[in-house]
Specification:
The chain has about 475 residues and is of the alpha/beta class. The protein has a domain of about 220 residues: Rossmann fold, CATH 3.40.50.1100. Helix content is about 45%, strand content about 15%. It has 19 helices and 15 strands. The strands form 4 sheets. The protein has a 6-stranded mixed sheet with strand order 3-4-14-9-10-13, sandwiched between helices. A 5-stranded parallel sheet has the order 8-5-6-7-15, with helices on both faces. It has a two-stranded antiparallel sheet with strand order 1-2. Strand 5, helix 6 and strand 6 form a beta-alpha-beta unit. The longest helix is centred in the middle third of the chain and has 21 residues. It is globular. The two termini are about 30 Å apart. The model has no long low-confidence stretch (mean pLDDT about 95). The protein binds pyridoxal-5'-phosphate. Pyridoxal-5'-phosphate binds next to helix 11.
Length: about 475
């Protein structure tokens, strides 16, 4: 399978090259040349597969430069760190299905992709006899999942910047209690935006980037999207076994558009009408919700909410959908993205018919998040984290009776105990992954939000070949 840029400015690359490249060199995002289709017979045969076996079948249709046996080993190793045999169990609660994506080491759905990406990097670096220094800024979940994905890996060092005192106590401990030599936590005296700007600046220093083999781990990496396609197909297959009707809807709490885009790819792979509706659920940061309602894709101010991993305006994966919306026209995509960069908005109202076929949506208020957590607990004796609650609330508003709906549970409630307790009076029990975490020793350096100082620190601690 070859990969192309949404902006059309690079020669086709292999899967491995796409993974190492992250962002395409013309500023676009990478997509497979075609989306493989899965016929109904294949799908029926797949019903018997376990999660890892299904992952191998799906991924091998997008990856032709890793031998099947080695890909299987990578997949098996990646999901051995999950605490449930089903990896992403599907449970019925009331009249919805909850797809629990939080059974990995950091209790958020990002583990599903980052456990795999960490092993994939390690595999590719060994093959090329190379090293990688990963640099990233986090507001919480991504940092801990990325650290858990690469801890102890031979050829990789990781530097994660987080805003000092502004991530939740659990999230901070999840990052800083990892003692492996290749982990470098930097608490910066500044905001998440400062951290992100510093990382971007460092990456723009091309000479430094090449000299130190810098790499990124953010959600634009195609391997992350691909790993997430698996659980859409997996849960669809489980419902096919249970329900006569083969159609299923999904509701997805959305920030950077990575998770829902994986659902969009899964829908393209499956026989038409199988995966039917994708509900795009946002919190008060509603740019994507407005886009689906009226075609207005325009930046607003970032609002802080109880679902911080979705406190995002410009969604980094949106360009991939835009490319398909423009009928795979790279020139149109490039022009629209340039307009968006210059003016902070684009008007997609001419494409409303297609957008409405692709998604439905709801933007969920803080009040609704709390009400949803409370009601769901009362009715089903089941705790939702605030991100998951956004999706469950949006599902109720976009419900088509008779068709099962799967709500993606993107974090364990114990990651956000204060919000959950306030909403329903119940304190979530911390699972083993974080039990006793608050008492553990931390390893973290504090630095001013200064690009030169941080760059110097990275140079001193970088892994060299
Ligand atoms: C990252 C994250 C999201 C948003 O996912 P995107 O792929 O960015 O849309 C939702 N919930 C949780 C808990 C997350 O960590």
């Amino acid at each position: 399978m070859q990969y192309l840029s949404t902006r059309g400015g690079i020669a086709p690359v292999s899967f491995s090259e796409a993974v190492m490249m992250g962002l395409a060199e013309d500023g676009g995002l990478l997509l497979p040349r075609t989306i493989p289709r899965i016929g109904s017979e294949t799908l029926t045969a797949w019903q018997e597969l376990g999660y890892q076996e299904l992952a191998l079948e799906i991924m091998s249709r997008f990856i032709d430069d890793i031998p099947r046996k080695e890909l299987q080993e990578l997949i098996d190793r990646s999901y051995s760190s999950f605490d449930d045999e089903a990896i992403t169990p599907l449970v019925k609660k009331g009249d919805v299905y909850i797809l629990e994506l939080w059974h990995g080491p950091t209790l958020a759905f990002k583990d599903v992709a980052l456990q795999f990406l960490g092993n994939l990097f390690e595999y590719m670096l060994k093959k090329d006899n190379s090293v990688l220094n990963i640099i990233g800024a986090t507001s919480g979940d991504t940092g801990s999942a990325a650290i858990a994905g690469v801890r102890g890996k031979d050829r990789i060092n990781i530097f994660i910047l987080h805003p000092k005192g502004r991530v939740s106590p659990v999230q901070e401990k999840q990052m800083t209690t990892v003692m492996d030599d290749n982990i470098f936590n930097i608490a910066i005296e500044g905001s998440f935006d400062d951290g992100q700007a510093i990382v971007k600046d460092i990456f723009n220093d091309t000479e430094f980037k090449h000299q130190y083999h810098l790499g990124a781990i953010n959600s634009i990496n195609w391997a992350r999207v691909l790993a997430q396609v698996v659980y859409y197909v997996y849960s669809t297959l489980q419902l096919m076994k249970k329900e006569k009707d083969f159609a299923v809807d999904f509701s997805i709490p959305t920030g950077n558009f990575g998770d829902i885009f994986a659902g969009y790819i899964a829908r393209k792979m499956l026989p038409q009408g199988t995966l039917r509706n994708l509900v795009l659920a946002t919190n008060g940061n509603d740019i994507l919700s407005r886009m689906v309602q009226s075609g207005d894709y325009s930046l607003g101010e970032v609002k802080l909410t109880s679902s911080p991993s979705m406190d995002i305006q410009a969604a980094s994966n949106f360009e991939r959908y835009l490319f398909y919306l423009m009928d795979s026209d790279a020139v149109k995509t490039k022009n629209l993205m340039e307009t968006f960069a210059a003016e902070g908005k684009i008007d997609l109202s001419d494409s409303m018919d297609q957008i409405r076929r692709d998604f439905s949506t709801a933007s969920v208020s803080e009040e609704e998040v709390k009400d949803t957590i409370e009601k769901f607990y009362k009715e089903n004796d089941y705790l939702l984290d605030p991100h998951t609650a956004v999706g469950v609330c949006a599902a109720a508003e976009n419900r088509d009776t008779g068709i099962p709906i799967v709500c993606l549970a993107t974090a364990h409630p114990a990651k956000f105990p204060a919000v959950v307790e306030e909403a329903c009076g119940k304190v979530p029990v911390p699972p083993p992954q974080i039990d006793g975490l608050m008492e553990q020793e931390s390893k973290c350096i504090t630095m001013p939000a200064d690009k030169d100082e941080i760059q110097q620190y990275i140079a001193e601690h970088a892994r060299r070949s």
